[in-house]
Amino acid sequence: TYVAITSDKGLCGGVNTQVAKQVRNGITDEEAKGNATKVIVVGGKGVSGMKRLYGDRFSYSFEEVSKVPFTFGQASLIAERLAASKPARAKIVSNEFKSMVAYDTIAMHTFTKDEAQTIDRSEWTKAMDVYSFEPALYEVWDDLHEFYYGCSIYACYLQSATVETAQRMSAMENASKNAGEMYDKVSLQFNRARQAKITTELCEIISGASAV
Question: Mean pLDDT throughout 101-129?
Answer without folding.
Answer: 81
